[in-house]
Amino acid sequence: MSSRLRIESVDVGPADLPAQLPADARLLRQIAGPDRPDYFFAVLDEAIAYRTTLTALKEQGVDPDAADPQLIRIDDDGSVDLRVFGIVFAARIAGETPHAGMKDFPVMLAYVIDNTALRDEVLDFKKTVYAAVAFISDIDDETPAV
Fold first, then answer.
1. Which residue among 49, 62, 105, 136 is least crowded, i.e. fewest CB within 10 A of its CB?
2. pTM, whole model, 2 decimals?
3. What is the average per-residue pLDDT within 104-131?
4. Which three-class secondary structure state does DSSP give residue 23?
5. Gap between the Cα atoms of 67 and 72, Å rounded
6. Max Cα separation, the chain?
7. Span 30-71, pLDDT tens digits
8. How far apart (Å, rounded) are the C-alpha atoms in residues 108 and 124?
9. How far apart are the C-alpha atoms of 63 and 51, rounded to whole Å?
């Protein structure tokens, strides 16, 4: 797989995500997860806004206190606004692999909430929030518009 990708669209995901797409990202590395060996970390060129609640994060086993304080705002009513730069994804169908030249490749996409996940040897789901079934494309080959 190449080093640049674009999240083109979502099949299933948060209502506010489609309006923030397309979103370009730089691939960082592959990482094994507790359930399969083929997850990938990427960093978005521009943050995706994610609105949720403290209750929802805690129900998913995520510790909001571990989020970068510059990227999270917790309101008095328990609502949470996050700016997400880190994502993790894997092919929607186990055994398939994201690859160079892919177009609208279906993936399971999660937001990285705790940036220490990027240093881990094995993906820790408690540092991410599952977000969407999305479609990604390789954009390394794209020629800039003139």
1. 49
2. 0.91
3. 95
4. strand
5. 7
6. 48
7. 999 999 999 999 999 999 999 999 999 999 999 899 999 999
8. 15
9. 15
Q: Return the structure tokens found at 122.
A: 């094995």
Contact between 18 and 139 (Cβ < 8 Å): no
Would you say 42 and 5 are in contact if contact means Cβ atoms under 8 Å apart? Answer: yes
Q: 80 with 64: CB under 8 angstroms?
A: yes
Q: Give the integer Cα–Cα distance in Å for 124 and 64.
A: 14
Cβ atoms of residues 107 and 136 within 8 Å: yes
Residue 69, token pair as written in the block = 């304080």
**HEC states along 26-92?**
EEEEEEECCCCCCEEEEEEEEEEEEEEEHHHHHHCCCCHHHCCCCCEEECCCCEEEEEEEEEEEEEC
